[in-house]
Amino acid sequence: MEKFAEMYKAFLAKGxxxxxxxxxxxxxxxxLILSSLYIxxxxxxxxxxxxxxxxxxxxxIIPYNFALVGLSSFIxxxxxxTAIKANYSLRCEPVDYSNNPLALRMANAxxxxxxSKFIELFDTIFMILRGKTNQLSFLHVYHxxxxxxxxxxxxxFAPGGQAFFAMLLNSFVHVLMYTYYGLSALGPEMRKYxxxxxxxxxxxxxxxxxxxxxxxxxxFLTDCDFPAGLNLLVLVYSTSLIVLxxxxxxxxxxxxxxxxxxx
Length: 263
Hints:
Blueprint: H1 2-13, H2 29-49, H3 58-85, H4 101-119, H5 122-129, H6 138-157, H7 164-185, H8 197-220, H9 228-262
């Protein structure tokens, strides 16, 4: 037990001292507890609502979605503006651990990206309370429960550097995604403006493929001074999401269309 405690302390000691005392960053405990509670709610919530009347949360969901559009837009702008001003490279971008204003700005944007994933857990809670448990797929729960500890690692050990690329793309995709959710929550009269729904899954797939390509290039083809373990994590995680989203796309947009044509 003492050896484990020493290893744990040594692990945390490698973290970025600039972000060490930031909210939910000092240790992985808050991130792991929240992810575990999220999984528990995802399992028990549908059972709790099984024989109960779904709630009408329209008055809450609309501002929630558009608030996330605003937050995602803010994160996207902060990362993009900082990357441009600091002359970031797509080929290799080490983490700047200095107290340079641009380095601190990127670290701050990384924290906001991490924190936004806490807020996005309400997606699932709203699904459960509204009785939309058919949308509560393994992909949905897997993605929401794993991204928080993944980005805890980024904020704690590498808040910036080439991790900016994944955060930039993902925040942009979330602007589109929560715009769609917000508009669709306004009512059936908005459906004619939401013809681009089927393209959202394609955009997400392209996003993960770009994550993988960027990570693979930096991991295998360059000698980039960026934590190799985090780069490998990006490769493994993006691969899992590509497989899961591809399976979802084939099931929802190819098999179901073929079934309709057959009928």
